[in-house]
Specification:
Blueprint: H1 2-17, H2 27-46, E1 56-72, E2 85-100, E3 104-115, E4 132-142, E5 147-154, E6 176-185, E7 188-196, H3 200-203, E8 226-235, E9 240-251, E10 264-276, E11 280-291, E12 299-311, E13 316-325, E14 368-380, E15 383-393, E16 398-400, E17 403-405, E18 408-420, E19 425-435, H4 438-443, E20 452-462, E21 465-470
Antiparallel strand pairs: 1-2, 1-20, 1-21, 2-3, 3-4, 4-5, 5-6, 6-7, 7-8, 8-9, 9-10, 10-11, 11-12, 12-13, 13-14, 14-15, 15-18, 16-17, 18-19, 19-20
Helix pairs in contact: 1-2
């Protein structure tokens, strides 16, 4: 301990002599500075003492992810006269990983997410538009050889990410403030998550010492107030497994401190079957969503999905799948809400790369029937191409006054490629086209949408490991 304190004080003195006192360091920067001193510097001092048991591990890694996009119809159809959009965005992450003797793990991942040009060339001392944030920061404690608990801001990724996903496609990713309890033994797994959220900045002047008040606002905050989720994996044999999920979400969105808004809860229950061998991979998923609360219309909704993929040889892969997501009849009065919501799913992965469904802007809760074909071709180990073809339908009628629309919502074609430059760098990109119909134009509130929509992107991803040690 004295060694850690001496290292910390020595570095503070050095930085002070370098006019450190004139710098305005953010809380995150100070936190990382202390973490580096406490974890890294003892590692350097002790690295050469081979006689001591090496119970500690530490690594420092990073990510630079930049993506350019040309949007001529992504998220929704562009109408005649609307100009396409172009932008370059980036994500920069620094990840500190520490573990002690399989009993303690610590992860800290600050990140910067921005769009090129949104920051001034010369930033002032107080930069209110700071892009800096914490993506993950958690600690994991082993309770015994099978149980551990993980506390803090963490990614929740379950199964194929249909309901809970990391959303790595989004530059900011997705992480939850939660506590998790994990159990694993003989390929059986059990995970439980719980979260309770508050938003003092919206209603209580960001006063953390606020003595009273329990209303929650989703303004610039997590979309739920309560979350409890249980997930378990039941292995059948080497190639087959079943997973089960039950999730309870509590929602509240108060507009002011005097609001009497009550919390309402919604439950999602699901089961997945997965099969995988050297040639074939397949899965079947079924989810049901329900709530019974006087504040909102009672919900009774479901999602059914099936997929099968076949590896033809070392170069070719074929896949065929279908999703059916229940929705509401548009233009007709309903006594129940039948619109299923895959709240935290990585929907970009399932329902077309142009994000027309369950991402970006909505489509009036009409539900979705998606039938798709996937083809992948690996030209060489470092270069691969892919094609996905989607045929979208509405599972319900779409009526606007006396006009009844066809249930055909159009087709989407997604071309992609990936190229591994070296151990730490890779490049990906793609082009997508969407053939619209009057039905999707109506659901997206773009009555004069162009018949053909486009989207193209190119991304560079660099993930270096700066430092690794055991001590």
């Amino acid at each position: 301990m004295s060694l850690i304190i001496n290292n910390y004080l020595s570095l503070r003195k050095i930085l002070y002599n370098m006019n450190y006192k004139h710098f305005s360091i953010s809380k995150i920067t100070e936190f990382l500075f202390v973490a580096l001193v406490v974890v890294l510097f003892p590692a350097i001092h002790l690295h050469g003492q081979d006689t001591m048991p090496k119970l500690n591990t530490f690594s420092l890694s990073g990510q630079f992810h930049v993506r350019g996009e040309f949007r001529d119809g992504a998220f929704r159809p562009l109408e005649s006269g609307e100009k396409p959009a172009g932008l370059i965005s980036d994500r920069i992450r620094l990840t500190l990983d520490y573990s002690y003797n399989n009993k303690l793990e610590l992860k800290i991942t600050p990140q910067s997410v921005g769009v090129w040009g949104q920051s001034p060339l010369v930033q002032g001392a107080e930069n209110s538009g700071s892009q800096f944030s914490l993506f993950e920061t958690w600690v994991k404690l082993s309770l015994n050889s099978n149980w551990n608990t993980q506390i803090g801001r963490q990614v929740i990724s379950l199964d194929d990410e249909r309901m809970f996903g990391a959303l790595d496609w989004a530059q900011g990713g997705r992480a939850h403030d939660a506590i998790a309890f994990n159990f694993a033994k003989n390929k059986y797994e059990f995970r439980a998550f719980a979260s309770y959220n508050q938003n003092y900045k919206a209603l209580y002047g960001n006063n953390l010492s606020n003595p009273a008040g329990n209303l929650y606002s989703t303004q610039d905050a997590t979309p739920y107030k309560w979350m409890q989720t249980i997930w378990t994996k039941l292995p059948i044999n080497e190639h087959n497994k079943v997973t089960l999920l039950v999730s309870n979400l509590g929602f509240q969105n108060a507009a002011s401190k005097s609001d009497s808004t009550k919390t309402y809860f919604q439950q999602t229950m699901g089961a997945n079957y997965f099969y995988n061998n050297s040639k074939v991979n397949a899965n079947i998923s079924a989810y049901y969503q329900v709530n019974d609360n006087s504040i909102v219309t009672a919900t009774s909704a479901y999602l059914l999905a099936g997929y099968i993929g076949y590896t033809v040889n070392n170069q070719w892969y074929l896949g065929l799948g279908a999703d059916y997501v229940s929705g509401n009849k548009i233009g007709q009065t309903q006594t129940k809400n039948q619109s299923f919501n895959p709240y935290f799913g990585t929907n970009h992965k399932f329902y077309g790369a142009m994000d027309y469904y369950f991402a970006g802007n909505g489509h009036r809760g009409a539900g979705l029937s998606d039938n798709y074909l996937k083809i992948a071709y690996k030209m060489k180990p470092e270069l691969a191409f892919s094609l996905a073809i989607h045929q979208f339908f509405s599972p319900n009628t779409i009526v606007n006054n006396t006009t009844e629309y066809n249930t055909n919502l159009g087709q989407e074609f997604d071309l992609g490629f990936s190229y591994k430059i070296n151990k730490f760098a890779s490049m990906t990109g793609g082009y997508s086209a969407y053939v619209t119909t009057p039905s999707i134009n109506y659901l997206k509130n773009t009555p004069n949408g162009n018949d053909l929509q486009h989207w193209a992107w190119l991304s560079l991803n660099i993930t270096p490991t700066f430092f690794e040690t055991k001590y």
